[in-house]
Each structure stands twice: as structure tokens, then as C-alpha cells.
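Q: Please design a sequence for this.
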């Protein structure tokens, strides 16, 4: 047995012990940071997917409300639209909590297209205003998706040219359906 504690704990032992503790602390900190980034990415992915799904889901209630202008079932169609709008607003709130300012601003622009502009045209039974606002839906939608993908570390371009052409055809078809329903 050593004669004194000083002999047992020489300088090399103390330095080695301190380095071991520092290395362990650094490893724990790095692991926590990696896990937090993964968790945040997953939360953002879920929020982005829910927001895009809400944007997609509000289209049909808007169409139904439009088709029922002046009919007895207009109030129930309007209520379905407002339910979807509330869901859209809720999912937008999650983005506000989780995302960088640029993605949040893009989500707000996409949200406002529906909650302000299209809602205003629907309430006023403004056919031309509705068509005009529906023509503007694609740009904020696309901007949000591109910024969200960038925040998630995904490539910016995700659609082929043929996909964009199909989306444009769908938009034109929707526009024609709205005009035909108004006649």
C-alpha cells in the first residue's frame, strides 16, 4: 500500500483522469446534439407534410362551396371550408414553432392565399376574383415546398418538367370547371 495519497495521485494520473472525463463529456454532448438535430428534422418533416396535406385538402371544400353558391347547402359547404382552413392554420402554427424564418414566411404566404384572398372571393361570390386567386396558388405552394426541402437538406428540384406540365393542366382544368359551374 502506498505511503501517501500524493504518491498514488501523481500528476499523470490526475491529467489522465481529467482528459477521460472531458472526452466522455464531449462525446455525450456531441451525441445529444446529433440526436436533437435528428429529432428536429423529423418534427419539421412531419409539420411540413401535414401543412402540404392541409393545403391540398382545402381545395375540394373550396370547390364545393363555390358549386353551392346561392343553394340551400351553401352554409354546410362553407362550414367544411372553414374547418379545413382551421386545420391549415393549425399546421401552419407547427411550422412557426419549428422552422427558420424563410420557411415560416413562405408558409404564411401560402396560408394567406387561402385564408384571406380565396376566402374573400368565396364569401363575396366573386367568380373572377376566385379564378384570379386560384391562379396564384401555385407559386406560394411551390416556394414553400422548395424552402422546406432545403431546410430538410433535400435537393431543391424535386419535380420533372412533365410533372410541372401535369400540374399546370390540372390548374387549367380546375379553372375551367369553376367557370363552367358559374354559368
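A: Design:
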Amino acid at each position: 500500500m502506498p505511503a501517501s495519497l500524493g504518491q498514488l495521485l501523481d500528476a499523470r494520473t490526475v491529467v489522465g483522469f481529467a482528459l477521460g472525463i472531458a472526452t466522455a463529456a464531449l462525446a455525450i454532448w456531441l451525441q445529444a446534439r446529433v440526436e436533437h438535430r435528428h429529432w428536429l428534422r423529423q418534427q419539421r418533416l412531419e409539420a411540413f407534410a401535414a401543412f402540404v396535406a392541409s393545403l391540398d385538402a382545402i381545395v375540394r371544400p373550396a370547390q364545393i362551396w363555390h358549386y353551392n353558391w346561392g343553394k340551400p347547402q351553401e352554409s354546410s359547404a362553407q362550414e367544411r371550408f372553414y374547418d379545413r382552413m382551421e386545420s391549415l392554420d393549425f399546421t401552419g402554427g407547427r411550422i412557426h414553432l419549428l422552422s427558420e424564418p424563410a420557411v415560416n414566411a413562405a408558409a404564411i404566404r401560402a396560408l394567406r392565399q387561402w385564408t384571406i384572398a380565396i376566402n374573400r372571393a368565396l364569401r363575396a361570390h366573386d367568380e373572377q376574383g376566385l379564378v384570379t386567386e386560384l391562379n396564384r396558388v401555385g407559386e406560394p405552394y411551390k416556394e414553400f415546398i422548395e424552402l422546406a426541402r432545403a431546410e430538410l437538406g433535400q435537393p431543391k428540384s424535386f419535380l420533372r418538367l412533365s410533372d410541372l406540365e401535369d400540374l399546370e393542366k390540372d390548374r387549367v382544368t380546375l379553372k375551367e370547371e369553376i367557370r363552367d359551374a358559374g354559368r
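Q: Thanks. Anything notable?
A: The domain at 41-182 is CATH 1.20.120 (Four Helix Bundle (Hemerythrin (Met), subunit A)). The chain has a mean pLDDT of 86.
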